[in-house]
């Protein structure tokens, strides 16, 4: 058995950020497993992309292929129904009265991290890797560094052993996320993320220069803006 801090669980949705985090983790840890969550999201197409993204990433690197272990998909649709948002039902995507977008799913990252920590405990892993980010702040309070720091402490106390939460994207923007993928796996990894991952909140699969999506939801706008900046920098 390896040291628990050489084993990581990646919260893996099938989108751009979690795919980049998966490559980041495979580059650092001796053993990596992935966990995804079906919470009744309208954009369930992201879940359907997960296997192809995993396979594409590990095909790039023999070491990554050896390090990647099992995938786990957890049914959290009951929670998703309770957390009611524009991501779980047909509702306009807009800014709500509380000052957060209607796509905010209350406690989503807290729930995901709690469930992932249970898996980590049983699989002998001491690290959780998640793609939350406060740089391209979307109005989600559970994406902030302060929240993650508090959650790490709570999980460590609740499990009675240290549980580390790594957030490789916390302080970088979307252009830098594309660049991180390029640094980790070159143009081949960038292309896998561009073509195979799904991020659109509406689950739209219209081909775009930066991947697939409606092009108008907040997730698509962020991804497109980051791609344009990355491509411009790469060409200069």
What does this structure look like?
The protein is an alpha/beta fold. The protein has one domain (4-194): Rossmann fold (3-Layer(aba) Sandwich). The chain has eight helices and seven strands. The protein has helices at 16-26, 45-58, 62-67, 77-82, 108-123, 145-159, 174-196, 218-235; strands at 7-11, 31-38, 68-75, 127-129, 164-166, 207-208, 211-212. It has a five-stranded parallel β-sheet with strand order 3-2-1-4-5, with helices on both faces. A two-stranded antiparallel ribbon has the order 6-7. Helix 1 crosses helix 7 (174-196) and helix 5 runs parallel beside helix 6 (145-159). The chain starts with 6 loop residues before the first strand and ends with a helix. The model has no long low-confidence stretch (mean pLDDT 92).
Fold topology:
Elements: E1 7-11, H1 16-26, E2 31-38, H2 45-58, H3 62-67, E3 68-75, H4 77-82, H5 108-123, E4 127-129, H6 145-159, E5 164-166, H7 174-196, E6 207-208, E7 211-212, H8 218-235
Parallel strand pairs: 1-2, 1-4, 2-3, 4-5
Antiparallel strand pairs: 6-7
Helix pairs in contact: 1-7, 2-7, 5-6, 7-8
């Amino acid at each position: 058995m390896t040291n628990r801090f050489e084993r990581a669980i990646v919260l893996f949705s099938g989108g751009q950020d979690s795919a980049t985090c998966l490559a980041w983790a495979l580059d650092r840890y001796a053993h990596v497993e992935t966990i995804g969550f079906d919470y009744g999201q309208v954009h369930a197409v992201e879940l359907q992309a997960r296997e192809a993204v995993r396979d594409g990433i590990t095909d790039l690197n023999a070491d990554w292929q050896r390090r990647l272990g099992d995938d786990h998909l957890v049914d959290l649709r009951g929670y998703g129904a309770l957390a009611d948002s524009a991501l779980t039902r047909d509702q306009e995507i807009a800014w709500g009265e509380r000052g957060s977008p209607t796509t905010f799913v209350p406690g989503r990252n807290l729930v995901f991290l709690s469930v992932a920590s249970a898996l980590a405990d049983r699989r002998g892993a001491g690290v959780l890797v998640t793609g939350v980010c406060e740089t391209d702040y979307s109005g989600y309070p559970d994406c902030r560094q302060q929240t993650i720091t508090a959650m790490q402490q709570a999980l460590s106390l609740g499990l009675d052993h240290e549980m580390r939460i790594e957030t490789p994207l916390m302080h970088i923007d979307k252009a830098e996320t594309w660049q991180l993928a390029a640094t980790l796996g070159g143009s081949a990894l960038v292309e896998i993320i561009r073509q195979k991952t799904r991020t659109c909140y509406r689950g739209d699969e219209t081909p775009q220069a930066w991947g697939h999506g409606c092009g108008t939801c907040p997730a698509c706008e962020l991804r497109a803006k980051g791609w344009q900046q990355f491509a411009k920098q790469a060409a200069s």
